[in-house]
Amino acid sequence: MPDPTVILAVDHLVKSFRIHHQKSNSLKQLIAGRGRNRYDDFLAVDDVTFDVHEGEVFGIIGQNGSGKSTLLKCMAGILQPNAGSVRVTRRMGALLELGAGFHPELSGRENVYLNAAILGMGRKEIALRFDEIVDFSGLHAFIDQPAKTYSSGMYVRLAFAVAINVDPQLLIVDEILAVGDVSFQRRCLEKFVEFRNEGRTIVLVTHDLGSVKSLCDRAIWLERGKAIDEGDPSDLVEAYTERMLGAEAPAADGSVRRGSGEIRITKVEMFVNGSAFAVKRCRTNDDVLLRLYYQAEKTMPQPVVGIEIQSLGGATVTAPNTRDVGMVPPTMWGSGAIDVSLSNVALLPGTYDIHTTVTDFNRALIYDHLREALRFDVMTGKPYETDGVVTMRPEWKLS
Ligand SMILES: Nc1ncnc2c1ncn2[C@@H]1O[C@H](COP(=O)(O)OP(=O)(O)OP(=O)(O)O)[C@@H](O)[C@H]1O
Ligand SMILES: [Mg+2]
Fold first, then answer.
1. Is the shortest distance between the CB of 64 and ligand 1 below 6 Å?
2. Other Cβ atoms closer than 10 A to 200
3. Which atom in ligand 1 lies closest to the alpha carbon of residue 62?
4. Using CA atoms, how far apart are residues 282 and 240, in angstroms rounded to an integer?
5. Of 15, 51, 244, 245, which has the maximum CB count within 10 A?
């Protein structure tokens, strides 16, 4: 008797692709009966089993090519598995890889109808929701243009608008947060949270490990088509990050460096109140400038640079990065410096560490992670508070 709370059951799913090799014209091979129809079967999804329960947010993580998108396409019925099964007991909304489910020659409008129909919505029902779909997508002016003229961001907006407006009880989403612009990403996140609070179920594939930790109740980790681990998202993300980062390499100055190394932060310097001399201390309310020197071995596209300020062995006080503020350069190469200015520093007296990170745009590949790039002290300034890490600059009023 199946568990009624399970609304998606993936059972020993296998999906392989036939990879054809170049035909050989060699006479010897032809005579030998070889050289024709040579192929290998490549297992993209290799015997994967898991259940998703009603109301869960379920994450799927794994490196590029590990089979996540293929798995989702099997779940959405776009690909036929070779073996095993997928059982879905609720209406599903699917937002698959860019391109899947949309026809480039058809207009946005026609694609809305086509897509909603694939997801099981009748024509009348679609017509009733059409305006809402277009509103959510924000593509009013482009809705009668062919989809092939859309940018990837526009495309995702429309696909997402359809997926959520078919009123799905189960929403499956493949790596969407990386594509849209910041305001759209925020609306998607709000929608996810709203869906989750309404008790709907979400299956989320993403390289954004932060959102796996903050959004998901459970997750699996795919590697070369196999589910190698399943469980609590924080534990899973931690184990996954450890694996991706590889071994730690301690440096002479006590800092610890990890990452693949295409770009490195070689040094971090701190300047206070416009002075040209690098120092390692400041006061509360000083204007601080951090200069991150970098060295890129090759030209790397869209690197994201981040810093983390941590109180000595304690809490992360802040962890800004260039992607959050839309300041990602198209490429980075050679050497140079990046300045981060922090005016009227709110840190209270104590010792702090700065860690730096350089990643790819999805923040999945870590080029460089330097812990304790700079350790500095904050001395008493204004305002002064006996305890705590930051000041909120309180104004007290006695009445
Ligand atoms: N139509 C296809 N024909 C042949 N091989 C394919 C096909 N689709 C996917 N593959 C292969 O299957 C493997 C898994 O691909 P998939 O797109 O599922 O990975 P993924 O985990 O989604 O990766 P990413 O993180 O880059 O999105 C890859 O090796 C890919 O080359
Ligand atoms: Mg994919």
1. yes
2. 22
3. 21
4. 37
5. 15
> What does the alpha-carbon distance between residue 363 and residue 237 come to, in Å, rounded to a whole number?
13
Minimum-distance ligand to the CA of 174?
A: 2
Predicted pLDDT of residue 28: 62
Query: Where in the chain are the domains?
Result: 6-244, 249-379
Above 80 in pLDDT, residue 52?
Answer: yes
If residue 230 lies in a helix (H) or strand (E), which one and from where to where? strand 226-231
356 C-beta closer than 6 A to ligand 1:
no
What is the rounded radius of gyration, in angstroms, for the C-alpha atoms of the chain?
Answer: 26
pLDDT digits (tens, 9 = 90+) for 92-106: 888 887 667 778 899
CB-ligand 1 contact for 310 (6 Å cutoff): no
Tell me what percent of the residues of the chain surpass a pLDDT of 70: 91
Give yes or no for residue 248 having a pLDDT over 90. no
pLDDT-derived band at 178 (thresholds 50, 70, 90) equals low
Q: Can you tell me which residue has the tokens 């480039």?
A: 104
pTM (two decimals): 0.65
The CATH superfamily holding the domain 249-379 is: abc- transporter (atp binding component) like domain (2.70.50.60)
Q: What whole-number distance in Å separates Cα of residue 232 and Cα of residue 170?
A: 20
